[in-house]
Design goal:
The complex is a heterodimer of chains A (292) and B (283).
Chain A (H helix, E strand, L loop, with lengths): L2 H9 L10 H22 L9 H8 L1 H31 L7 H9 L5 H12 L5 H8 L13 H25 L3 H9 L4 H29 L3 H5 L10 H10 L4 H27 L12
Chain B lengths: L12 H29 L16 H9 L2 H32 L5 H13 L2 H14 L6 H25 L3 H9 L4 H30 L2 H6 L7 H10 L6 H25 L16
Helix pairs in contact in B: 1-11, 2-11, 3-6, 3-8, 4-6, 6-8, 7-8, 8-11, 10-11
The chains are: A mainly alpha (292), B mainly alpha (283).
Chain lengths: 292, 283
């Protein structure tokens, strides 16, 4: 390479430092990009029929296309609940007080439970003979056990228990990033507590909330173990992940499995894109919750 | 000696009580949920009563023998540690390049890093499993490690990049002025400064890999199952094994990941993952 060219490249930021990127990028191209493209290609080569026949078959069969709605019906509320519940709790925890660290640790602890233990616990605790139903019947709220497992609710509970700690940690982190002096300034100018929340904290927090929602949604969207264990995997909680798994490992139709996997990615990215578009219209400044 | 100043008590108000009430309700139910698994794992038999008839340790012994828990734990640790080491070795240099340079195509590289974190593991897990089966890597430990690298490596890069951006470039220039080569700058100046970040990223990857179910599930063979996958398989084929033995295994899993989280919390302040906290000074 001539020195002239090297100079011009260096001015644009291209020099030998970029070689450090090569191993990581190469690994991802091999292990992520290539399989992804291979999967897309595979989805376009159905066992029988033409290019788009797999996609047509997926949308024509209500048992298959219904999984989209079922996944969204679980993932969207779960993400909303997890983010929504985190906000008031994080708001209460934003200052300094004794026991703050302990309380944070307790709220984050469910991260360690793992989906199987949560599923197992839900089956025992919420089951017809579990403590929850026993207590309800003992105080006379209900006459017979409430059915909370092997259906939609069991999966939703499991998604909330495993997803809440993540959402809470992020929201707390964004909340702590908001300069506390702003709120005090507003108070000095005569804003009441509710007004301070509505006009100062929430607008500054909004971009961070959007990011948290995206991550909480991603976590909930790939629901697989709990939909199998505490849900009704043949019917009410047959989510896209189950449809993809069934196609691959029950019917050995890898082409169809790739189709479902691709569609899963597409629908998830659509939701993420919508949230991020909305987020782009929010304020992101230096004093904010660093949601940028 | 400082005179203790009486600070006004935080006024709760009804709204605060609702929030704390909700938290308490959640925590009580969660505790009961965990307890019902723990109690059952020690139970001789438990049908339709408030508490089981008697208690025993034998389910743990049974889980240990029957599930080959020793082997499973060994595989879990080897896989997790290998993923951490490889992800760090490849990710930290990449993060350095991303933190220090802007270059044409940088957005593409960032997209390549973001997608594995955003997409559901099943989406790329199924094609990846097919590819790995084609190259006969699936079912082996190497395949499991490779699959787990896909989310772990971008995670390391994304966590480390802001860390490196915080380090003043003049420190590097000074080292170069004193005659240090690139390798020396990296190993003797940057890495020591980055130790907290590297530890944080490494431990988070370790926790995530131990918990990663889908990818391992899709590519693991009988000898390369990690604990989560073994646990799921046991729980998903009920009737073959006593429910209590599965509970015992779930408890072992939770203890393991709780221990990891405790270690992680020693190195990472959970509220400072995304922002430097500006805390009010103690008065």
């Amino acid at each position: 390479m001539t020195t002239g060219l090297r100079h011009r490249l260096a001015e644009r930021g291209v020099d030998r430092v970029l070689l450090l990127l090569v191993p990581a990028v190469l690994t991802l191209v091999l292990l992520f990009l290539y399989p992804m493209l291979y999967g897309v290609g595979l989805s376009l080569q159905p066992r029988t029929g033409g290019l788009l026949d797999n996609y047509r078959a997926f949308f024509a069969d209500p048992y298959q296309s219904g999984t989209i709605g079922k996944t969204m019906r679980l993932a969207l509320p779960a993400a909303l609940i997890n983010v929504g519940a985190s906000v008031p709790i994080a708001y209460r925890l934003r200052g300094r007080f004794r026991g703050r660290r302990l309380l944070t640790a307790i709220l984050v602890l469910p991260v360690t439970l793992g989906t199987v233990l949560v599923a197992d616990g839900l089956l025992r605790y919420l089951g017809p003979k579990g403590w929850f139903n026993r207590v309800l019947m003992a105080i006379g709220l209900v006459d017979e056990p409430v059915r909370l497992i092997y259906n939609y609710w069991g999966v939703l509970f499991s998604l909330v228990i495993t997803g809440f700690p993540f959402a809470f940690l992020l929201v707390l982190s964004y909340m702590s990033g908001i300069d506390p002096t702003l709120e005090r300034a507003a108070a000095t100018l005569g804003a009441g507590p509710w007004e301070r929340v509505r006009r100062i904290t929430l607008p500054l927090l909004a971009p961070g909330l959007a990011t948290t929602f995206v991550l909480a949604f991603v976590l909930a969207f790939s629901v697989f173990p709990s939909a199998n264990l505490v849900g009704e995997p043949a019917n009410e909680t047959r989510v896209m992940a189950i449809a993809a798994y069934d196609a691959a490992f029950e019917k050995y139709d890898y082409s169809m499995a790739s189709t479902v996997a691709v569609l899963m990615g597409v629908f998830e990215l659509v939701v993420i894109a919508l949230v991020l578009l909305w987020r782009g219209r929010l304020y992101t400044g230096s004093t904010g919750g660093k949601g940028a | 000696m400082s005179v203790p100043i009486r600070r006004p008590r935080r006024r709760g108000g009804p709204y605060a009580w609702i929030v704390w009430g909700g938290v308490a309700f959640f925590l009580v139910n969660l505790l009961a949920l965990i307890l019902s698994v723990v109690v059952d794992s020690f139970a001789t038999s438990w049908f339709g009563d408030w508490l089981p008839r008697g208690f025993t340790m034998r389910w743990y012994a049974e889980a240990w023998d029957e599930f080959g828990l020793g082997d499973v734990l060994r595989v879990t640790l080897v896989v997790a540690l290998a993923v951490v080491l490889v992800a760090l070795a490849l990710g930290v240099p990449a993060a350095y390049a991303l933190a220090r340079r802007t270059f044409p195509g940088k957005r593409l590289v960032l997209l390549l890093l973001l997608l594995p974190v955003l997409l559901p593991p099943i989406t790329y897990g199924i094609p990846l499993a097919t590819v790995l089966y084609k190259f006969q890597l699936a079912g082996s430990m190497a395949g499991v490690i490779a699959a787990n690298l896909v989310p772990a490596l971008p995670f390391v890069v994304l966590v480390m990049t802001p860390f490196i951006e915080q380090i003043d470039t003049t420190i590097e220039s000074a080292a170069r002025m004193c005659g240090a080569g690139t390798r020396q700058v990296f190993l003797r100046v940057l890495v020591p400064l980055l130790v907290p970040g590297i530890l944080a990223a490494g431990i988070l990857v370790l926790v995530r890999t131990v918990a990663m179910f889908e990818l391992t599930f899709l590519v693991a063979g009988p000898d390369s199952q990690t604990l989560v996958v073994a646990l799921f398989s046991a729980a998903f084929t009920p009737g073959i094994r006593a429910a209590q033995a599965i509970d015992a295994m779930a408890v072992v899993y939770t203890m393991l990941s709780a221990a990891l989280l405790a270690v992680a919390l020693m190195f990472v302040n959970p509220t400072q993952i995304v922002a430097q906290v500006k805390e009010t000074p103690v008065d």
